[in-house]
Amino acid sequence: MKLATLPALIMLTFAMVIFNACSTTSASLAGEWKLVSYGDSAAPTPALPGVDTSILFEEGQFGGTVGCNSFGGDYTLSGSQMSTGSTISTMMFCEQTSAQESAVLAILSDKTMTVTQSGNLLTLSSVDGKSVVILERK
Predict the structure, then answer these.
(1) Closest Cα to residue 38, out of 102, 127, 83?
(2) What is the mean pLDDT of residues 108-130?
(3) Alpha-carbon span 63 to 55, nearest angstrom
(4) For the residues 60-85, what does the mean pLDDT come to?
(5) In sequence order, what E strands does 27-130 have?
(6) What is the pLDDT of residue 126?
(7) For residue 126, what are the contacts with CB-CB under 8 A and spacing of at least 6?
(8) Tell me, what's the pLDDT at 111?
């Protein structure tokens, strides 16, 4: 009888480890982040100094500002892949921050991206790996 329950116990343990790993990834994304850099993954552009930036991920939704416009949308996270639904944004023109906003929104509107977290840094990479948004937990 004990030998028959051993495989079941091993499978249950394995399932719990996988489930916890998935929920940890999702939970670690939740919260408020500030923009550190963006753009070309080989040489990201630093975020504009003195510009308040904030991106909040919470319960399948994200929103924030990286300049003068606000944006938001929904997302799903599966392992290291994040998919976004429709992203909406206000459309004011702000010359100082327009390049920063355009680059960040292009990544967030990419529909599928790779998510990597290292300590307090979160990197969102485009599907082709050429563009990144790097965030730091607030």
Answers:
(1) 102
(2) 93
(3) 6
(4) 96
(5) 31-40, 45-46, 54-58, 61-65, 70-78, 81-84, 88-89, 112-118, 121-125
(6) 94
(7) 41, 107, 110, 113, 132
(8) 87
| Average pLDDT for the chain | 85
Look at strands 121-125 and 81-84 and give their pairing: unpaired
Task: Give the whole-angstrom CA distance, residue 55 versus residue 137.
Answer: 9
For 17-54, what is each residue's pLDDT tens digit?
333 344 334 458 999 999 999 999 999 999 999 999 99
Contact in structure between 45 and 37 (CB atoms under 8 Å) = yes
pLDDT at 115 over 80: yes
Q: Are 65 and 35 in contact (CB under 8 A)?
A: no
CA–CA separation, 117 and 74 (whole Å) = 19
**Closest Cα to residue 68, out of 43, 96, 36?**
96
Q: CA-CA distance, 138 to 131, in Å (whole number)?
A: 22
Domains delineated in the chain: 2-137 (2.40.128.270)
Q: How far is CA 1 from CA 6, 7, 13, in A?
A: 9, 11, 19
